[in-house]
Amino acid sequence: MARTSADSVLSLLDQRLVAALQWDGRLTAERAAQVLGTGAATVRRRLRALGAEGTLRVVVSPVARPRAGGSAGALFLRLRVLPGKLDTIVAALAAREDIPFIDVTTAGDEIFAVARTEPGSSDPLVFRQLPATRAVTALESATILHVFRLTSEWRHQVLTAAEREALAPAPVAPAATAPGPYGIEADALEQALIDALTPDARLPAAALAARTGHPESTVRRRLAHLADQGRLVTQVLVDPHRLGLPIEAKLLLHVAPDHLAAAGQALAAHPAVHGAFATSGPSNLHAAAYFPDLAALYGFLSRDLVGLGISHVETAIVSRAVKRTPLPARPR
Prior knowledge:
single chain, alpha+beta, Arc Repressor Mutant, subunit A, two-stranded antiparallel sheet, globular
């Protein structure tokens, strides 16, 4: 049998499994089979195959400390570099822990990145290091003021409404809004469980019990407690090309102030959009979206953005996703 190409589009069943895991990263094979109308053995076989070939990973996203206005404590960076220096600058940025996202666009000399920072700080990377680098010919930075949509909240649109409803998590317990950096403080066992699940959110309770030295029944109870309070947020990592979405566009929009909130909410609700943020700077609304082809991108620009109070749109197409570290999720 011919080996599947690393960038070939997944079968519809595999795409539906990915979408189901986006709703519940710890979904059991039995439950997935029940909702998707297939066999549990088939689900287990496909999940093993997708994991073994590196196509699919499910991780736990840290839950962000709530900030006033929903800001993310981050900067969008846009850099232009000298010809022949792109890979050098990309490698230097990728080596930094405070740079979770790096994309290279089809312009060939352009980099988009996200830098973690404290709001209002004079970040040394932006104010000193990058401007002093001769290979960098232009640098723009914009502070994220408000989050409308995070990548962890995006859902691949291959499930029916009934299937999505069956998989949607229950409302979180009121304790999730209690004081503390994550809504409520985690004790040693809960933190150990979160740490163990961060790189592999599908570790079974038996494996977690062995790692933590606690009975499996205790582990199951604590996992349910974390989930009920919205502190166990999973994210599916999969190349969008494998989902039939090879076009990723970065959108920099100018929106009238009285339309900003409504435009951001409309973008967040759009099935193609996996990131939407109000920002400082002339482009006060940034978005990122996946599309199956350029015709779909054109339709989005010419039809879906109409009536949102947008006066200017700049579109950049991503040619290479260099670094994609899961960003902190919002408490559910």
